[in-house]
Amino acid sequence: MGIEVGGLLGLIILVLDVYAIVKTVGSGSSTGSKVIWVVLILLLPVIGFLLWLVAGPARPARA
């Protein structure tokens, strides 16, 4: 098998971080809050994602 466990784990973290960033940008929070969350997720991929799961910004605003 050509895929190592570390590579697969890295890919999973990348996918989860992209998901968190997309959900953050689409949330109804203020722009400043969105920027802080995106920077946190980018600088600390695993810890940032876990913090986002626990205390992330509000869900998308309804029209």
Task: Describe this protein's structure.
The structure is a single chain. The N and C termini lie far apart (48 Å). The mean pLDDT is 87. This protein has 63 residues and is mainly alpha-helical. It has one domain. It contains three helices and no strands.
Briefly summarize what is shown:
With 63 residues, the chain is mostly helical. The chain has one domain (5-55).
Summary tags:
single chain; 63 residues; mainly alpha
List the helices and strands and how they pair.
Elements: H1 5-25, H2 31-43, H3 45-55
What is the average per-residue confidence, as pLDDT, rounded to a whole number? Answer: 87
Provide the domain count.
1
Radius of gyration: 13 Å
Count of beta strands: 0
Strand content: under 5%
Q: What does the overall shape look like?
A: elongated
Largest beta-sheet characterization: none
Distance from first to last alpha carbon: 48 Å
Helix fraction bin: over 70%
Structural class: mainly alpha
H/E element order: HHH
Low-pLDDT segments, ≥5 res: none
Total number of helices: 3
